[in-house]
Amino acid sequence: MPYIYGKRIRLRAAEKEDIPTFLHWFNDPEVTENLMMTTPMARVEEERWYDCMMQKPATEHVMVIEISDGQQKPSYRAIGTCGFISIDWRNRSSEVGISIGEKSLWDQGYGTETMSLLIEHGFNTLNLHRIWLQVHSTNPRGIRAYEKAGFIHEGKFRQAEFKKGAYCDVHVMSILADERRQSEIKGKPIEKGLGQNGNTPHAA
Ligand SMILES: CC(C)(COP(=O)(O)OP(=O)(O)OC[C@H]1O[C@@H](n2cnc3c(N)ncnc32)[C@H](O)[C@@H]1OP(=O)(O)O)[C@@H](O)C(=O)NCCC(=O)NCCS
């Protein structure tokens, strides 16, 4: 799969060699606080997940988010994962997900830019019609990033997730291809500064 380039990030295929990095990220309670994970993750589980994903390339694409060091001949480093989960080709619909494992890089717009890239790729290359996601009500950072990328609140599953002794709602947000097109026709990318151009924690 070719790289997908954004303004500050690029997306590449997840490799088996990434597994130690994934284990580091997805065993960090701060990173997993708003993911559908309840127990520490073992290497063998992660390897099984990877092998399973590789057997269904038509329906699940998990990618690594990388940032450049800004040099003329840039080198890149991994900061998180994102991707399309359970693509439904008949309805041209897919759930997406994201996790930025490098906590020091939260709140710097990378989540918004990644989602905008997934939207762009989903509509303009995969020919999807609808892209949607689930986010816990306890994750205002995620909700804000998805709003900035153009996702619209669709509804919520009430008290659908139990964690830390309490239930929280799970919001469903989505964007349709026409909505994206309209914002492009108006000539304004959904999030200022961006170009026009999922149950795994990697895309949770
Ligand atoms: C959720 C996540 C993808 C967002 O990515 P990010 O790069 O941190 O987000 P961005 O910088 O693009 O946008 C975050 C926005 O939320 C805002 N924000 C941060 N904390 C907030 C809070 N407590 N309440 C309201 N807004 C908040 C930021 O100020 C920013 O908005 P602004 O640009 O208008 O100021 C990332 O933080 C992450 O991966 N977290 C851990 C795993 C996770 O929760 N995955 C998502 C599961 S649905």
Secondary-structure blueprint:
Layout: E1 4-5, E2 9-13, H1 19-26, H2 29-32, H3 43-54, E3 61-68, E4 76-88, E5 93-100, H4 110-124, E6 130-136, H5 140-149, E7 152-163, E8 166-176, H6 177-185
Parallel strand pairs: 5-6
Antiparallel strand pairs: 1-2, 2-3, 3-4, 4-5, 6-8, 7-8
Description of the molecule:
The chain is of the alpha+beta class. The chain has a single domain (4-203), classed as Aminopeptidase (3-Layer(aba) Sandwich). It has six helices and eight strands; from the N terminus they run ββαααβββαβαββα. Strand 1 and strand 2 form a beta hairpin. Helix 4 crosses helix 5 (140-149). The model is unreliable at 192-199 (pLDDT under 50). Coenzyme A binds at residues 31, 34-35, 80, 98-100, 106-112, 135, 139-142, 144-145, 204.
Number of helices: 6
| Largest β-sheet summary | 8 strands, mixed
The CATH first-level class comes to Alpha Beta
Task: Give, in order, the helices and strands.
Answer: EEHHHEEEHEHEEH
In helices, the fraction of residues equals 25-40%
Low-confidence stretches: 192-199
Bound molecules: coenzyme A
Averaged pLDDT: 92
Beta percentage is 25-35%
CATH architecture type: 3-Layer(aba) Sandwich
What characteristic shape results from the CA principal axes? Answer: globular
Structural class determined from secondary elements: alpha+beta
The number of distinct structural domains comes to 1
CATH topology: Aminopeptidase
Rg from alpha-carbon coordinates:
16 Å
Q: CATH superfamily assignment?
A: Gcn5-related N-acetyltransferase (GNAT)
Spatial strand arrangement across the major sheet:
1-2-3-4-5-6-8-7
